[in-house]
Structure formats: C-alpha cells, structure tokens
Amino acid sequence: MTKNFAEGKVWKNIVSQSIPLMLAQLVQLLYNVVDRIYIGHLPGANSMALTGIGLAFPLATIIAAFTNLFGTGGAPLFSIARGAGQEKRAEKILGNTFSLLLGSSLVLMMLCFLLRRPVLYLFGASDASYVYADAYLKIYLLGTPFAMLSTGLNGFINAQGFPKTGMMTTLLGAVLNLILDPIFIFSLHMGVGGAALATILSQIASCIWVLHFLSGIHFRSRSRHSLKTENQLRIKKANLGVDWKLASEISALGMAGFIMQGTNALVQIVCNATLKIYGGDLYVGIMTVINSIREILSLPVSGLTSGAQPVLGYNYGAKRTERVCQGIRFMSVIGILYTLLAWLAVILCPRLLLSVFTEDAAMLEAGVRAIRIYFFGFFFMSFQFSGQASFTALGYSRQAIFFSLLRKAVIVAPLTIFLPRLGLGVDGIFLAEPISNAIGGLACFLTMYFTLYRGLRKG
Fold this sequence. Notes:
By secondary structure, the protein is mainly alpha-helical. The chain has 15 helices and no strands. It has one domain (10-219, 237-458). It is 81% helix and 0% strand. α2 runs parallel beside α9 (281-317) and α13 (380-393) packs antiparallel against α14 (397-418).
C-alpha cells in the first residue's frame, strides 16, 4: 500500500521523501547544466554559445511555468485527497492533470517554434548570438510534450510515497543525456543543436518511464513482486476527460508555481535585455553561468521543501496539525543552515564555480565580481522556499501567488531596470537579486508564520 505520512516521525518522513527528490532534481539539472558545461567549452565559440543558450532560457522557463501550473497544482490536491481517504477524487485529479499537461504542451510547442525569431531578438539577441540560440531552440522545442509530461506527472509518483521511483525518472534521462551529449556535440560535430537533441531523447526516455509507472502496467522482474505492486492510484481512461471545475482547482493551486516560473522568465528577459545595453553579450553569458550555479546551489533546499509538501499536505488533510507544524519547523531550520553554507562557498570559491562552465578569460574576470554581488545574503532564499512550500502544500493558493509575484515582478524586475540607471551599471543588475531575496523572502516567511503556522498551533 502507499505510504501513510501520518505515522512515524515527521522529520524522517520529510527526509525519506526529500533525499530521493534532491537526487532526482540534481539529475534533472543535468539535462541543461551539462549542456551548458559542454557548450561553454566548444572550440572557437568563446562566450557566444553560452550567450545564445541564455537567450533561450526564458522560453524554456515559460514552458516550465505551464508544467508547474498543472503539475504543482495537481500534486498537492492529490496528496490532500489521499490524506482524506478520497481515492476516487485523487485518481480523477491525476487523470485531469495528464490531459491538461498534454494539451498545453502541444499548443506551446507550436507557438514557440513559429515565433522564436522575433521573440529571441525581443529577449536581447544580437545577430551573433541569435545563430546559437536558434540552433538550440528549434530542436529543443520538439521535446516540449515529453518534458512537460515527465516533469509534471512525476510529483504524483512522489506523492504516493515512491520517491525512489520518482528519482529514477530523472536519473534515467540524465544518464542518457550524459552519454549522448559528447557524442552529438563533439563526435558528430552538431554543436549546440546536438546538445538540444540529446536533451530531447533523454526527455522521451523519462516520459516513457513515468507513464509506464502511472498507467499501472507492471514491470517484469525475477523477484516475487513487480516494481509497482503497491502502486494504487493510476491514470485511467475514464478520468482523462477534463472536468473544468476540477481543472480550475488544479490551476488555482498551481498558479503560484506558474507565476514563480513566469516571473522567472520575466526577470530573465529583463536581465538579458538590460545586460545587452550596459554590458553586451559578455554579461548575458555571465548571467547564464550564474543562473546555472544558482540552480545547483538552490537544489538541496528546493528538494527539501518539495519533499516536505506531500507530508505537510497529507497531515493537513488528516487533521494532524501539530505534525504539520513540526514539518514546517524542520524544513525552515535546515533550509536556513544549508543556504548559509552555500553562500560561504560562493564567497570562498567564485572563480572555481565559474570555471566549471567556461574557460573564457574575460568571462571569468568579470564574473567573479558579478557572482559575489548576486549571491550576497543567499540565505534569505530559504525563507521564500519555506513560506511558499507551506502555503502551496496546504492549499493556500492566494498567498502563494501573491508572494511569487511580490519577489519577482514587483521587486526584481523593476530594480533590474532602475538600479543601472542610478549609476550602478551592470552591478545594479546583479544587485537586484539579493535585495529581492531579503525583502520578498522575509515577507513571505513572516506572513506564513503569523497567519498560517500560529493558527495551526492554536488549532
């Protein structure tokens, strides 16, 4: 049977969920990060190839936003329904999420492909960097349905207490990507297009794994039990028709994740366009590298909060409010401690972190100052992660949406535009992130503490 998160120590449940998720998210990063590492070392490309990939980021982030809209909206509702013993409703949520992900992925793939040229120039491409951005994007976009289904549905595997199986989703694709990247990029001389092709094939493999598991078709093995004998809740044909009332519930809860990714895309667009003005293609490439490092360093706290969400949601649905509070405390303290250590690593080893992605001397020289500014006070990010995860896990969609908007759309994007004009130049662009982390992160966490956490304690 699936895991009962109302039993055992809360922190152990969170850790048992989080560790496989951290590994899964680490592997998920390899899809893009490994691409950037190889591309950053392309012979003769210097920083321009990385700049081109950076220009493609916003479209990839927009696709991730729609994945979150339905994936991170459906999974918490699924967990709450399981905790309340409503298994038919849980399976209907799963089936509807599948249909919403598939339909939206096809529409996004066609629109982004057709509009990629004007959009890339709008995002800050030059004639030199467009060549690399287009070569990557026109292939990468073909994998949109596979990427959205594998990522969006994987949370339903984790929410049933199978985090190791969820980890395998990304492990399978990432290993394949690691193998195919050097073959396509260097051996077959496909360059950035080869990186995109390797990513697509990896996403297809991950998608097949997820659908195979959630469809209820058992893997054969020599052991007495198949891999999925305990998997109870599956995608069923009867639940694939979209129930628009349920779809609105899924979308409402997933709106926070959608806005978070959507505003990430907005910030990426604003940053690239502003950096082109104040720093040129070199600094667009530096921002690409810094974003890659941020993704890696954010991963453990992201995995922790993601692993906590099904535990918090289940106990909330089961009316075990003290266990919910225990989970929030554990998640918050560990997140703060980790991000402090991550900030220290950036302070001590900035050049080493940058050199993983590029050998370009100019990029390394300018990047050391930029990365130290960007990561200043990085521990404030943990407050945003904890507050956001608590609101989302317990179904408080309005609060989650508000604080997603506050940090990115209200604080980062305007600061990115105005700080350089105050005489700070490119430094102002990189400074916008730590300011937003401090203001937005504290606002989110303190609101969660005084309105949600203390209410649960009293209850």
